[in-house]
Amino acid sequence: MPRRNGLAALVAAFVLVALPALGGCAGGDDDDDVATPDAPADESSDAETTASSETTTTTAPEAEPDDLTSLVAQARGAMIDVWDTPVEAGQPARTLRADDEPSGHVVLLVRQELGPTWLEVYLPIDPVGTTGWIRRDDATLSRHRFRIEVSRSAHTLTVYAGEVSALETPVAIGPDAPEPADGLYIKDLIETPDPSGPYGRYAYGLSGSTAQAEDFAAGSGVVAIHGTDDESTLGRDADRGALAIAADDLDRLVGSIGLPLGTPVEILP
Prior knowledge:
Elements: H1 6-18, E1 49-51, E2 56-58, E3 70-75, E4 79-82, E5 94-97, E6 107-114, E7 118-122, E8 131-135, E9 139-144, E10 146-151, E11 156-161, E12 164-170, E13 172-173, E14 186-191, E15 202-206, H2 213-218, E16 224-226, E17 243-244, H3 247-257, E18 265-268
Parallel strand pairs: 10-18, 16-17
Antiparallel strand pairs: 1-2, 2-12, 3-6, 3-9, 4-5, 6-7, 7-8, 10-11, 11-12, 13-17, 14-15, 15-16
């Protein structure tokens, strides 16, 4: 597909993947209190740097596609069939349904391409790293160069755009934080039922987990990158939640950086 250089290209990739998933409420009539945020405005494509004693944010410079590029598939319709092997004969092993996802859309991180027909993808289901095969024609595709590294020992979360650190910030690591695993990625972006609650305003749900309204209300069991109502926990272990960062950093990921769905997440020791 045609490409544009720099952060503008990366933000455009995010819109291509996630814009259909950023309108309306999540999951159907019963989940009106968990909604996907409105698509953020493209505030600027100019280089910008923000620094403080705890957090640094730098937009990405111009960069060409390389091995750090991720391919993301989003189901075209309300469901998508998944096969155990890339063979036309036989029935699919499972069907993933948009109604089962808080975002109302099925987003898959592509592991490999096989000819013009098949894609091997990481699935959003438990356990993390489960793979399957989908038909290319059943999905819309987009590429981006974002990835996230979480250091448990340093209690930091770093967002990379290619090889450039776009944001580095302290993270509170709670009991619901994911273990290291291949195929961990961001599968949805939702607004929480209570912006002043334990998860803050936004949450990036991670593969291998659900993020239903009752989970947010309970304040536990949500495997996500989210905000917090107690920023004194940032930079250390916390007694609840998964991966919490400051509210302004989360707003920056959503509104300024435009972190795309399908962003790989690596958990480091």
